[in-house]
Amino acid sequence: xxxxxxxxxxxxxxxxxxxxxxxxxxxxxxxxxxxxxxxxxxxxxxxxxxxxxxxxxxxxxxxxxxxxxxxxxxxxxxxxxxxxxxxxxxxxxxxxxxxxxxxxxxxxxxxxxxxxxxxxxxxxxxxxxxxxxxxxxxxxxxxxxxxxxxxxxxxxxxxxxxxxxxxxxxxxxxxxxxxxxxxxxxxxxxxxxxxxxxxxxxxxxxxxxxxxxxxxxxxxxxxxxxxxxxxxxxxxxxxxxxxxxxxxxxxxxxxxxxxxxxxxxxxxxxxxxxxxxxxxxxxxxxxxxxxxxxxxxxxxxxxxxxxxxxxxxxxxxxxxxxxxxxxxxxxxxxxxxxxxxxxxxxxxxxxxxxxxxxxxxxxxxxx
Length: 367
Fold this sequence. Notes:
The structure is a single chain. The chain is α/β, with parallel strands linked by helices. The protein is built from 14 helices and twelve strands. Strands 2-8-7-6-5-3-4 form a seven-stranded mixed β-sheet, with helices on both faces. A three-stranded antiparallel β-sheet has the order 9-10-12. Strands 1-11 form a two-stranded parallel sheet. Helix 1 packs antiparallel against helix 10, helix 2 packs parallel to helix 10 and helix 3 packs across helix 5. The two termini are 29 Å apart.
């Protein structure tokens, strides 16, 4: 039994991916040990924030970095920092930004809900979200014509949640932002490359510490120092409600260091090995079709797509997912296409035994 079963909760098999609702990622023993040592000693927190930012910036290529409690907090604090600058009086008035440059422009297809609306995070930082274009098409004119004297920044969302077609690219958004002397914020929370979005023109780029990096609950924003300095000062205002502790800061730093030494080829090979195992285990099941699909946003993440034959199963995708959660272990899979009778199984947190259990449970359900 694991630690959660010991307090009366069901065992969870995570075929959904690095999802906040399931605890995101597994952390390494060395990250845990680092957090233990951090928790048993004292430090000046402001000094630690500065030092962690300095050290993480060596991996991102940013001028500086501000560590946060999550990527969501990083969005709110980035917006706040751009609006207030280093003016303490304005920082202490947040989230009220009446009379200030506070409009944050984002493409209609990027106004996503990833468990909470991204527009809520903008508002938490005192920003006024301005959605431009349409959910299937955004033109440069839509963005440029929305820019006025109250515009503070442009925001780009790099995520599988966002619409993938018809949107402007990062480079196009960066060109527009810089043409109008505005910063571009890039939300790259779950992305795996912690350098390329600064190189593509982002002034501030936001990452989750707990997703691709496999760290504790944390996040960071990296980029231009003029903005990072203002973001750090938000801990004297609204950031107080989003503070991150010494243990998570040190755990994040260790996770970033380990991430820099990862063998990406081995990670992909393991995903494909497990994906092929699941397909083999289900090869004689005629009520489903299986295939390997890549992540919608183009990341090196491979999943097994399971498509129900609804005529043979008389079961919707949502019903199928419900049954998966009702076994001895609670199986979670990706739900984004469940309305079409399709679920995807993410391999990153699974073992061979997990995959075999999932296959057996699917066969049991389909009987």
